[in-house]
Amino acid sequence: MKKFVIHSKEQGKKLNTVVQARFPELSFGAFQKALRKKDVRINQKRVHENCVLQAGDEVCIYLPDSCFEKKFPYVFADLVIYEDANILLLYKPAGIEVQGENSFTTWIQSNYPSTFFLPEPCHRLDRNTSGILLYAKNQESLTILLDCFKNHEIEKHYHALVFGIPKYKKRTLTSYLFKDSKKAMVFISDVPKKGYQKIITSYQVLQENANNQTSLLDVTLETGRTHQIRAHLAHIGHPIVGDGKYGNAKWNKQFSYPYQQLVSYSLQFHFKEKKPLLQYLNEKKFTIKKDDAI
Questions:
Q1: What's the CATH class of domain 158-264?
Q2: What sign does the dihedral 121-125-127-130 (CA atoms) show?
Q3: Could you tell me where in the chain the CATH 3.10.290.10 domains are found?
Q4: Exposure string (b/e) for 188-224, b if CB count within 10 Å is 16 or more?
């Protein structure tokens, strides 16, 4: 059920216009059905869709919360890379937050409504980064996998399409990162500073395109900080194509990519000691098909 009060800017507008603007995910059919069933009320009175609203009116729509949630245009089975009793590996498309309201995780968990433990993500990907995302399907697996990431026992590789041709074809970068939560950005320094955390990013050039001056890199992380790959590569003069935050707007206009060209394409387990529940995963590697990556 949704309850809201009409503000002054909405005064004089029709009910269906205001509802559509406030709840774009609510389908026209569901709203019409609610009207027919008298499940839409203004100031506790049943109404029709064309009634004109006044400031201060209280509107109640008696529909399940699911009717107002974002509908993801994906088929769950199409995104599953691997699944067993303990873990779930999925392909996360770009443009979706991993966690939060109406997030990828919310949608994933909706596919397991009858289970005691809902799948929980063991790491994150930026909203506009696509690729492999690992979920735990029970508490023991979640505890183990979180420790594995902390102890560098899970190796991830990314494909990054960047502007320019790097001088060094294989390199390990060490810098320092500061996260500015207010600006929702990070900043990179080549020397230690107060509030900055050490970051290590390695890359190898896989392909070079002299025609459009881009390169495809294989990137790995020794540290996993917010926006690390994007900011670190931009810091050395090779921002990721399509990155609206750390990239070059003028260069990005040359391409039609809606999101940054960064894909987490490979994940492999390297256990330093035995993990009784998950030992069968040791040295197992999962890779996205070439068609799914950059």
A1: alpha beta
A2: negative
A3: 2-68
A4: beeeeeeebbebebbbebeeeeeeeebbbbbbbbeee
126 is a catalytic site residue: yes
Which residue has 């509802």 as its token pair?
19
Taking the model in full, what pTM does it have? Answer: 0.78
Given the residues 39, 65, 78, 126, select the one marked as catalytic.
Answer: 126
CA angle in degrees (0–180, nearest 5) for 24-26-31: 125
Classify 2-68 by CATH class: alpha beta
Helices then strands, each counted (H, E), the chain: 7, 15
Neighbours of 34 (CB within 10 A): 19
pLDDT tens readout for residues 109-141: 988 887 889 999 999 999 999 999 999 999 999
Residue with tokens 């503000």: 7
CA distances for 42 relative to 10, 52, 155, angstroms: 14, 10, 56
3-state secondary structure of 115: coil
CB 272 within 8 A of CB 71: no
3-state helix, strand, coil in the chain (%, to 5): 20, 30, 50
> What pLDDT does 207 receive?
96
CATH of domain 76-154: 3.30.2350.10
